[in-house]
Amino acid sequence: MPTSPIISSSSRGIGLELTKQLLRSAANVVIATCRDPENMPKLEGPGTLHVVQLDVSEEGSIRASIPVVSSILGDRGLDYLYNNAAVTEGNDSAFDHSSPGFMRTLIANVVGPALIAQLYLPFIEKSRRKVIVNVTSSLASIGLDIGPKSATYSISKTALNMLVRRRLFIVQAELTFVQTYKQARARPDIIAFVLDPGWVKTKMGGPGALLEPYESVSGIIKTVTSATSASSGKFYRYNGQEVVW
């Protein structure tokens, strides 16, 4: 059965590899978005490719992509939304970072993905799958306590995690139950989760990273396509292992 995935920041790194691998299936109608479609590498495959201009840091660009994607989808729904785009200010710290850079990071890594999910929701609602994948990082895990590096990037990805997270809390004093009402809780009919691609050899990850893009992405696709309602609101690695918050 035909499926329709959309990927942000698809002209390089993990997004480009995702596009390549998804195009291997003739059933896929892949919508690859990027800031500058002219710089999108020429890709071919049995699948169908549409390249759409979208800058996750610009609300106007996100809104302008809606009618373009609508014309591509027609009566079809959007099966998979990969919120993949992200920026980093590098290895800054809690007491040594740029305020403008921090703001750029929050807009691109949190506000942009949240707005994309909000505006693309009508397309997702028409799908039989309804999957939202927000690409995060192990640096966002408070439980793993990876350390002080890349402070603003880590903070932004932890905020992205909270956008998705679904967890039950017991408020002891009042003996009542409270749940976080974010994506997973607000829409139980949608499968929304965060996924760490691992340390990948991309421009952001650097040459010293552990994974080749094809290794990470093959795991990502397997994890995403096998996701069920039980996956919603959880934090996974690319290989399907659950990560501590």
Distance between the termini: 35 Å
Stretches with pLDDT under 50, minimum 5 residues = 166-181
Mean pLDDT: 90
Helix-strand sequence: EHEEHEHEHEEHEHE
What sort of overall outline do the alpha carbons produce when their principal axes are compared?
Answer: globular
Which sheet architecture does the biggest sheet show? 7 strands, parallel
CATH class: Alpha Beta
Strand numbers in spatial order across the main sheet: 3-2-1-4-5-8-9
Provide the CATH architecture. Answer: 3-Layer(aba) Sandwich
CATH topology: Rossmann fold
Radius of gyration over C-alpha positions, nearest whole angstrom: 18 Å
Q: How many domains, as an integer?
A: 1
Write the CATH homologous superfamily: NAD(P)-binding Rossmann-like Domain
Helicity, in percent? 25-40%
Structural class: alpha/beta
Number of DSSP strand runs: 9
Helices, by number, come to 6
Strand content: 15-25%
Q: How would you characterize this protein structure?
A:
By secondary structure, this protein is α/β, with parallel strands linked by helices. It has a single domain, classed as NAD(P)-binding Rossmann-like Domain (Rossmann fold, 3-Layer(aba) Sandwich), CATH 3.40.50.720. 34% of the residues lie in helices and 17% in strands. The strands form two sheets. It has a seven-stranded parallel beta sheet with strand order 3-2-1-4-5-8-9, with helices on both faces. It has a two-stranded antiparallel sheet with strand order 6-7. The radius of gyration is 18 Å and the shape is globular. Mean pLDDT is 90; it is low at 166-181.
